[in-house]
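Issue 218. Parser rejects a valid record. Input:
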Amino acid sequence: MFGLFKKKPLEVVSPMDGSLVALESINDDVFSKKLVGDGVAIIPSSRIVTAPINGVITRIFPTKHAFMITSPNGIEVMVHVGLDTVELNGEGFTCLVKEGESVNQASVILEVDFEFIKSKGKDIITPIIITSNKDIEIEKHKVGTIREGESLLKVKFV
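Output the parser choked on:
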């Protein structure tokens, strides 16, 4: 009875094919020390980056290397493609949506030329971060191979 009004957990799916790794293992203190939030990271094996949740695109960085989606219940998810990719000024990225646009899980957000990014000496590892400061718990799934659209993590309200 008392759980009647409790918010339903948010299922976050993988925005790409690749290898799932712990956020703490990546070579960037901003992400590995969870300074912007908690989450996981993926070493991509496909060019397409999709929406990990249903929601509204609340931010697309001008350099197209990262975007944020906010769910209907207020949870914000950031997908940050690569490390130091802001320095590429958008080269290698094609953005297919606009800020303010509603998207569903699996809507294509970006097409990325990962070979180009690697040729510029940038790491292609892609953090997926829950940036919300709400009272939440994050349940992470095991590391290993993951396919676009498979369950990545679950955000529970406490």
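Fixed in the parser; the record now loads. Residues 114-119 form the longest helix (6 residues).
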